[in-house]
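Justification of resources, computational component.

The compute hours requested in this renewal are based largely on the per-chain cost of generating structure records like the one below. Each record pairs the submitted sequence with a full structure-token output. That output is archived, and it is also reused by downstream analysis tasks.
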Amino acid sequence: MPLSITDEMLEKNPFFQKGKQEGKKEGLQEAVVRLYESGKTPEEIASLLKMSLQEVNGFLKSKSG
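The structure output for this chain reads:
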């Protein structure tokens, strides 16, 4: 009998959750950097992505150094 993994089982798995959070963070950081490179200010990026200015600046700082 084949094993089947349900969405509910995945959602309860801590390894899945960690990977999902890391993926979201990487995607968000890429969006922040692209918006900044296209001429948006950190304040505009924070507003557009519903983030704090501190988070935006943290992503920009970690990407540059």
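Residues 29 and 62 are 9 Å apart (CA to CA). The mean pLDDT is 89.
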